[in-house]
Amino acid sequence: MRETASQPTNTGHRAVTVGSAVVDIIAIVADNDIERLTLKNSAASFLLLEPGRKVEADSISIHTGGGAINAAVALSRLGFATAPLVKLGRDLNASKVVETLRAEGLEDALVCRSEHFGTGVAVMVSAHERDASIFTFRGANTDLKPADIPKTAFAGATLVYVAGLSNDSADCFPDIIRGAKAAGAFVATNPGIRQLSSRRDAFLDVIGDLDLLTLNRLEAAALLPGLVGSSKVARAPSHNPPCPTVPPAIDLPPLLRSGLDGSGIDLTLPEFMDLLHRLGPAHVAVTDGSKGAYVSSRGELVYCPAFAGEVAGTAGAGDAFAATLASGFALGQSSDQTIIEATVNAASVVSFVDTQTGLLHRAELDARVKMAPGKLRLQIWR
Q: For the whole model, what pTM was predicted?
């Protein structure tokens, strides 16, 4: 039985999450009620919607989501007193978000309101492989201003976790990171690909203040050209142990075999992580969906395969992984323990259609991790 009714164990630590808050409307459609087209010469697939036709849904449900809220719920259930710093509209959808804050015991002192935009909304259509197509209205998530961030926002925080910031809100990223670092917090971020592409220089300006950077494979590839072309890398004295070199082998995990390719620039995964370590982050994680995840930390590289299980929806898995990883490193855990916890929590999330029901409380996560070694065989290079 899941531990949804119990109170999370209090670690005595405070966390602040920054990023988006949305209302998720999720439609589950039977495979035979919506056509899927897969291109012969591409891995891309498309759901086909016929204009003017009503498509029967197995279910339509409404939930709260968004990177900052998902991370806040994850951290609260892991025992952190957590305050999300998000921007909402003044509408009915905002009340849905506030309802979640109260239900999860989250602080609301850092929630602000937009006078110009409604609360963000995402409409997800899930069919076939349950990797939902998502229609997004970002709304108030694009309207975060420096004035919305109190000078005391990060005071007393053990951990500040910054999720992806939408559009103009991403202009606040440098000030958020500097403010969190000045407050003495462990600073973690999981930025979106749009932020890395359109504001790469601003991101690199404060990368030295990051303790943990978590990216998926596509985000890593988007950041790669800026790293290789950055003069900061050439002159940066490394304060972190380098990522170990991985000898070639036929049984290497996929991303260690293929490496990263960003705009024609190729690097091995350890080379990419080492560049990031030279710029500041002591911990670097790269996820590869169902093919597992990699963490470089303290002079070792750890690979953890994905936890096999039934998938109801993939939305929110990245938030669960990154937030759980941040919580472990902020509390001084080892890389192998932390990556297993993050993988197990993410696997629990994908067993539900929404982004939060599967987030585990501390006791249940500990219990599942004890059963994980036989199912999650780590590979470690030092």
A: 0.92
